[in-house]
UniProtKB/TrEMBL annotation:
Organism: Pseudosulfitobacter pseudonitzschiae
Start and end residues of each stretch annotated as Disordered: 141-163
Official protein name in the record: MarR family transcriptional regulator
SMART domains linked to this entry: HTH_MARR (SM00347)
PROSITE patterns with a match to the protein in the record: HTH_MARR_2 (PS50995)
SUPFAM superfamilies: Winged helix' DNA-binding domain
InterPro entries in UniProt: ArsR-like_HTH (IPR011991), HTH_MarR-typ (IPR000835), MarR/SlyA-like (IPR039422), WH-like_DNA-bd_sf (IPR036388), WH_DNA-bd_sf (IPR036390)
PANTHER family (alphabetical): HTH-TYPE TRANSCRIPTIONAL REPRESSOR YETL (PTHR33164:SF43), TRANSCRIPTIONAL REGULATOR, MARR FAMILY (PTHR33164)
């Protein structure tokens, strides 16, 4: 007999739903400014480090460089970041925030901080949730999951042909 499963009891489903909720949350918060969550975290990462190559930035964000590259071009096009040659290696291009980018990040951080305060989640709960999610992410990244083995499909005899 198959064990009854409840989606809400799956950590992965809760993370999936939280991901979508955060997407809607940030989309509403940033509205029609042109800032998206992806651009926001890129800018946060660049400010955190000062300057990074495209590959360093994509590694920091946990995505492929081809995900970051078009966003970086758009952000450079509107003056939020700049792409400059690395003085230590002229062949390398690094990304760094502009003064305008820093001003945008300051305004976005203020909006995000206020919106999170409105959620009435205590600082302690928030810290515990972040710590737990960090441990969970690390464990999942280091895991070697077992592969799904499907049962043999029923024979095609007696079934109606597909439309």
């Amino acid at each position: 007999m198959v064990q009854k499963s409840n989606l809400n009891d799956l950590a992965c489903f809760q993370v999936y739903m939280l991901h979508h909720a955060f997407g809607r949350f940030y989309q509403t918060a940033f509205a029609e400014t042109g800032l998206t969550y992806a651009k926001y975290v890129m800018l946060k990462a660049l400010v955190e480090k000062g300057k990074m190559s495209l590959s360093e930035l994509s590694a920091r964000l946990g995505v492929e460089p081809n995900t970051v590259s078009p966003l970086a071009k758009k952000m450079a096009g509107v003056g939020v970041i700049e792409r400059v040659r690395d003085p230590e290696d002229e062949r390398r291009i690094v990304l760094c925030p502009t003064e305008y980018g820093l001003a945008i990040l300051k305004a976005a951080d203020q909006t995000v901080t206020q919106n999170f305060a409105d959620l009435e989640i205590s600082a302690e709960d928030r810290s515990q949730a972040i710590a737990l999610m960090s441990r969970l992410r690390s464990a999942v990244e280091q895991a070697s999951p077992k592969r799904l083995e499907l049962p043999e499909a029923p024979s095609a005899e007696g079934r109606d042909p597909p439309d």
